[in-house]
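Quick check before the chapter quiz. The format below is the same one you will see on the exam, so make sure you can read both the input and the output lines.
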Amino acid sequence: VQLVESGGGSVQAGGSLRLSCQVSGNPISGYYMAWVRQTPGKEREGLAALRLDGITAYADSVKGRFIISVDTAKNTVDLQMNSLKPEDTAMYFCAAGVYWRALGNEYRYWGQGTQVTVSS
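Here is the expected output.
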């Protein structure tokens, strides 16, 4: 399974970005999916996760602002990010696995990441 993120960039505080993760190698419907971010010197932070039955989980830091969604026809999982804050600046990673890890970091497959920068 290969994961490739896109959609990162620079935005002003209060703005929005939509990240997309293209999954190849196997149907996305067979995996639990998640978005994780990391800033230099800090541990990875699980932001949003999606179970095979459609149940989602969100970190308190992004709840109400970020939305994770899947398009099985395109084999993609997206992260819609609204009301962005400077503290959202980080490298964002897509992750996948065959076990539910919720907001943990123990997913088996990872993308290379896409940078998001939010300016005040």
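If your answer matched, good. The chain has a mean pLDDT of 96.
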